[in-house]
Amino acid sequence: MKLKPMPIINPTPALPPALPSCCAPPSSSSLRRCFLSGFFSSFSSSPFSSPCSSCSSFEKLPRPCPWFYSFPRMEHFWTRGSVDKNKALVEQLKQYGVIRSKNVAEVMETIDRGLFVPDGSPAYTDSPMPIGYNATISAPHMHATCLELLEEHLQPGMHALDVGSGTGYLTACFAMMVGPQGRAVGVEHIPELVASSTENVKRSAASSLLNEGSLSLLVADGRQGWPERAPYDAIHVGAAAPEIPQPLLDQLKPGGRMVIPVGNYFQDLQVVDKKLDGSISIQSETSVRYVPLTSRASQLQGF
Ligand code: SAH
Predict the structure, then answer these.
(1) Ligand 1 pocket, 136 CB below 6 A?
(2) Backbone phi and psi for residue 288, each to the nearest 5 degrees, phi listed first
(3) Contact by Cβ (8 Å): 24, 257
(4) What is the number of other CB atoms lying within 10 angstroms of the CB of residue 302?
(5) Rounded-to-integer distance, Cα 117 and Cα 273, Å
(6) Considering only CA atoms, which residue is closest to atom 10 of ligand 1?
(7) Does the annotation count 30 as an active-site position?
(8) DSSP structural state of residue 114
(9) Is the CB of 137 under 6 A from ligand 1?
(10) For the segment 120-156, what is each residue's pLDDT rounded down to a tens digit?
């Protein structure tokens, strides 16, 4: 099938002062970057008025580089049922190099994103979606990125903590990866989101893990982690912390890894490794824009 280039719909008017780095000739890595920045930026022409981000930004981000527009939009592939659409989304993320491992591809195919977005949202578009309470479900490429970064720490039998579990999508992926002998704990401070995420998981392929108790979704302040199931091989934080909360560092197992957005306005997705001797190393993976990891009251007041 030959696909037509995507027309420019309502582009952001002002060009950034310098061309973004993704405007270099498209090597495979720059294509990947371009894909990401394009979709980050695609929110500026999104039908959604509220948050955008990689993730969950509230800003218009710079206009995507021209290469972005020469790619077909994912929606052009959608003609069949939701399972096929989810599969096609995963296929696209694989093609662009965002998904590299078999495990991540499998889990994202198994956990249908369509079951986790609010009714009427375009589930298989690579952008974040509002889920109410000033929160968002992260974009598929961010879910994939975090799963890839954590993959080695999500092996069968391992323990995983998902702070700011929102829709429960990533907690469900974690639970599938660590399996019935492992533990996946989602902590979310908005009780209504915990209730709706529980319903989402019940409809998904992770339902039996919820019933058996290896997957739990809990109402709590995620800045304190969840000590009952600690230490964790993998910790994912789905909201940006001004600095890495000490309880989360304490609950990370030696040899374990945490992925956490850190910062206020400017944020970095940080990869925190706890070595076997207990020392910590931190690397910045990419710039991101997530909703803040904050108190429930601040979030409900709009931060
Ligand atoms: N990763 C999730 C949600 C991301 S949005 C998904 O993709 O569905 C970030 C989430 O963090 C929101 O649901 C928000 O309510 C939650 N959150 C923010 N601060 C928190 C805190 N202190 N404790 C627990 N959850 C928090």
Answers:
(1) yes
(2) -140, 175
(3) no
(4) 7
(5) 31
(6) 164
(7) no
(8) G
(9) yes
(10) 999 999 999 999 999 999 999 999 999 999 999 999 9
- DSSP secondary structure letter of residue 292: B
User: Could you tell me the distance, in angstroms and rounded to a whole number, from the CA of residue 5 to the centre of ligand 1?
Assistant: 36
3-state secondary structure of 115: helix
| Edge-to-edge order in the sheet of strand 215-219 | 215-219, 183-188, 159-163, 232-237, 252-263, 267-274, 280-288
* CA 165 to centroid of ligand 1, rounded, Å: 5
CA-to-CA dists, residue 300 to 225, 282, 297, angstroms: 21, 31, 5
- Please answer whether residues 72 and 6 qualify as being in contact, where contact means their C-beta atoms are separated by less than 8 angstroms: yes
Question: What pTM value is reported for the model?
Answer: 0.80
Choose, from 54, 138, 165, 197, the residue flagged as catalytic: 138
Which residue type does 170 have?
A: L
Higher pLDDT, 59 or 277: 277
- Name residue, tokens 């061309």: 19
The pair of three-digit structure tokens given for residue 223, joined into one six-digit string: 């800045």
